[in-house]
Amino acid sequence: MKALKLTVAALVASAAFAGVAAARDQVQVAGSSTVLPYAKIVAETFGETFPDFKTPVVESGGSSAGLKEFCKGVGPDTIDVANSSRKIKDSEVEACKAAGVTEIQEIKIGYDGIVFATDAGNADLALKPEDLYKGLAAEIVVDGKLVANPYKKWSEVNSALPDADIAAFIPGEKHGTREVFEEKILAAGCKNAGAVDVIKAAVADEKQQHSKCVAVRKDGLAVDIDGDYTETLARIAANKNGIGVFGLSFYENNADKLKVATVNGIVPSTETIASGEYPVSRPLYFYVKKAHLGVIPGLKEYVEFFLDDQMIGPESPLAEYGLVAAPDAEREEVRKAFAAGNML
Amino acid sequence: MTDIASPTVRISARPASATRDIGIKRRYAAERRFRAYGIGAISLGLFFLALLLWTVVSNGYTAFQQTTITLPIEFTEKVIDPKGERATDGKVLMTANYPLLVREALIKQLGIDASKRPQVKQATDMVSASSRTLLRDIVVADPSVIGKTIPVTLLAEANVDSAFKGQIDLNVEESKRKVKDQQVTWMNELASAGVLKKSFNTGIFTFGASSRPEAAGVGVAALGSLFMMLIVLVLSLPIGVAASIYLEEFAPKNRLTDLIEVNINNLAAVPSIVYGLLGLAVFINFAGMPRSAAVVGGLVLTLMTLPTIIIATRAALKAVPPSIRSAALGLGASKMQTIFHHVLPLAMPGILTGTIIGLAHALGETAPLLLIGMVAFVVDYPGSPMEPSTALPVQIYMWANEAERAFVERTSGAIIILLIFLVVMNLGAILLRRRFERRW
Questions:
Q1: Could you tell me which residues are beta bridge partners of residue B127?
Q2: Local structure of A262: helix, strand or coil
Q3: Which residues of B touch A48 (CB under 8 A)?
Q4: Domain A113-281 maps to which CATH number in 3.40.50.300, 3.40.190.10, 3.20.20.80, 3.50.4.10?
Q5: ABC transmembrane type-1 domain spans which residues (chain B) (predicted)?
Q6: Looking at the partner chain, which of B172, B378, B404 has a beta carbon nearest the beta carbon of A253?
Q7: Alpha-carbon distance B69 to B127, whole Å?
Q8: Hey, are the CB atoms on A40 and B211 less than 8 Å from each other?
Q9: Where would I find the beta strands (DSSP E) of chain A?
Q10: B269 and B386 part of one domain
Q11: Which three-class secondary structure state does DSSP give residue A117?
Q12: Do A37 and B290 touch (CB under 8 A)?
């Protein structure tokens, strides 16, 4: 009987402490796995530099999941910051509004380059958007007609490319990177290859024209990777002919295992991306709830610390990790906009 | 061989005294085949187990060693407290430029020209950036060190650590690797001087998450897992056992209890992510509990473990022979006394085994934790289950996605730690069973 009494007491006790919803004393961040490594560096350094505040908690899970959590409402039981590898969508702003999150501050932290790389043992590779489009699109134009992609080897696409089977590991559709890949590579390649006119003649609807351009072949030669870049790296290690899509920072950390391809003859690097020469890059953002500033201890300081040049400047730990710093004027503008409290 | 398809015909055809073919060879052959299948299945299983252990251990054993650099650090007052304000302003010691101390010690040790900035940067890059907090903690704990020179053991930066362990191919072009030739030269120099060496990595057990591999550990994750396991144990064992005793011993057998039984069996097979969704909706959104907290994780895992425990407990209660119950009732015990004094103690080993297997299952779960915000980067130790923390399998998952080479060994290292936890739990289950098991 004694044991029973004890367990009942334990039950009551645990139920009691579970019922207390404590006020939060650290910043909570969620969102993009691309921004995650940067946010982690900032959070960790923030915790070390400001001993008065607790280190922010950074959840991963993807831009969309993060923004969804962000738009759940205002209050200490909702997150303060959503990291995103893309701009917030209108539909998400609407959802935020509906839940009472009306004051959102958008902050651009810099740029992320997207690179194509093969196994380190391969020859140098020079890619063009039109080659990638011809090799990877579901339907391409041959003799003025739209046909299912007939190419099996890169050399068939362009004789300058190696005589290797087409095998590409591209980010899956839930990744923010996929959108950049579609816009900057497939859509651009579609245009450069002159396929747009044929598609326009075949399909009237403008949206459908675009989706015809960016549709990826489904015959197994282009593989969607839903996991992280580590999975793409493992796929390339297993298939030496494979071309993988990586973030610049991931490539730089694994440069001894990978050979990066040039796009339009430009080698991707923080310099060529910052100058805009290298075509495939995208801005990275995070979003802050203005209502939480001054309520959640350390939130304002965290954002200011993030925006400081010692974090996102050209010679900062984030730049060292692979973030492409925004130009000086742009960084200054972002800081000013945050200080002024500009909202979406 | 004789035809054995129709033995009955043959039996009637032959006299009973002659040797009858009762298919003895055939039956022995079937037995031998069955044994071979069994051995085959087990060897296949053992082969894959060995393969798994081999890959994990061969990748991970190096994670338990960490390269350290022991430098005589001169705690100069000019650097730490240039204006002599530390008595009045406590912040001075917290925000002092400690990395400068490391830099100066390195310059002295390696004999570099301090005016050559790129060289100095390469040298300071060899020491972990976590040295700032390490030196700060030394000074804050004992301000009297200011002005003295003390040898301090600093962590080597992760790339130097990997290079020293031979995990980075140094034959690759210099521009393509994270460790530069000059750093390798220095590394070998320091190693032969005995300044740089490998030692047991206690940090992997005690540190919280970090973006720097050398300063990353499973401490916060292990504590979070411990909190969750305690909550699961405290909640699911009494609830599960009480529910099973009622269902097995007291409840009438009717359609309703049948329905409940079907539901419990069903719940045991529900994918764990569903429990995560439930936890998000009920505990966080409705009850307003904090995100990323071990208490929510514990509650979600409790729900997930309950069906397992109920099924195991009911099976254990069923296995107690009815003669025990009849004897107790026959001697005048009440139903309650029969169950609590006789049936339950006999069923205990089975119940404990089921509980520990359920706990081990819950310990390895990540999917439900994703939705309640426990797949997160948590640096600070949680003071209570209400504060943000993470869990061991989550830490493995997060490290597996890291870009840095040094996280590869740490991922396997964390898997080894988790496996040790699981082995200890399962051993406990076996020992408890041995200790309490009674045969009749």
A1: B156
A2: strand
A3: 132-133
A4: 3.40.190.10
A5: 222-428
A6: B404
A7: 8
A8: yes
A9: 28-31, 57-59, 81-84, 104-119, 126-127, 139-142, 145-148, 168-171, 222-225, 243-247, 258-260, 262-263, 281-289
A10: yes
A11: strand
A12: no
Closest chain A C-alpha to B211 CA, distance in angstroms: 6
Nearest CA in chain B to A46: B379
Residues B184 and B266 in one domain: no
Give me the architecture of the A28-112+283-340 domain, per CATH.
3-Layer(aba) Sandwich (3.40)
Helix, strand counts (H, E) of chain B: 20, 4
Distance, in Å, from the CA atom of A271 to the CA atom of A120, rounded to the nearest integer, reads: 22
Select from A295, A280, A326 the least CA-distant residue to A185. Answer: A280
Look at A21 and B288 and tell me if their CB atoms are within 8 Å: yes
| Residue whose token pair is 């053991």 | B153
Closest to B401 in 3D by CA, of A233, A104, A125: A233
Nearest to A58 among B377, B380, B400 (CB): B377
CA distance A83 to A31: 5
Q: Tell me what pLDDT residue B1 has.
A: 45
- Best mutation site among A25, A59, A72 for testing chain B: the one with the most B CBs within 10 Å? A59
Q: Is B209–A40 a contact, with Cβ atoms under 8 angstroms apart?
A: yes
Identify which of B287, B377, B405 has the shortest CB distance to residue A57: B377
Nearest CA in chain B to A25: B387
Instruction: Give the CA distances from residue B12 to residues A303, B1, B20, B295, in Å, rounded to whole numbers and listed in that order.
Output: 96, 20, 10, 75
Asked whether B240 and B355 are in contact (CB, 8 A), the reply is yes
A54: chain B residues, CB-CB within 8 Å: 380
Give first-to-last CA distance, chain B, whole Å.
Answer: 47
Range of the domain at B120: 61-201
Residues B255 and B400 in one domain: yes
Rounded to a whole number of angstroms, the distance from the CA of B149 to the nearest CA of chain A is: 24
- Do B211 and A14 lie within an 8 Å CB cutoff? no
Across the interface, whether the CB atoms of B402 and A55 are under 8 A apart is answered no
Split into its structural domains, chain B has a count of: 2
Give the domain-ending residue among B169, B201, B233.
Answer: B201
From residue A237, give the alpha-carbon distance in Å to each of A241, A242, B364. 9, 9, 28
Q: Does B266 share its domain with B371? A: yes
Residue B139 forms part of a structural domain: yes
Residue in A closest to B402 by C-alpha: A230
Distance CA B309, CA B232 (A): 11
Could you tell me if B321 and B371 lie in one domain?
A: yes
Question: For the segment B75-124, what is each residue's pLDDT rounded down to a tens digit?
Answer: 888 888 888 777 777 778 887 888 889 988 998 888 888 888 888 888 88
ipTM score here? Answer: 0.82
In a domain, B262, yes or no: yes
Which of B178, B295, B377 has the CB atom closest to A40's CB atom?
Answer: B377
Whether residue B392 contacts residue B418, with contact meaning beta carbons closer than 8 Å, is answered with yes
Domain membership of residue B80 (yes or no) is yes
pTM of the model: 0.83
Domain endpoint, select from B201, B231, B250: B201
List, by residue range, all CATH 3.40.190.10 domains of chain A. Answer: 28-112+283-340, 113-281
The tens digit of pLDDT for each residue in A96-143 reads 999 999 999 999 999 988 999 999 888 888 888 888 998 898 888 887
Contacts of A127 (CB under 8 A, 6+ apart): A116, A261, A262, A263
The CA distance from A74 to the nearest CA of chain B, in Å, is 12
- Per-residue pLDDT at A21 exceeds 50: no
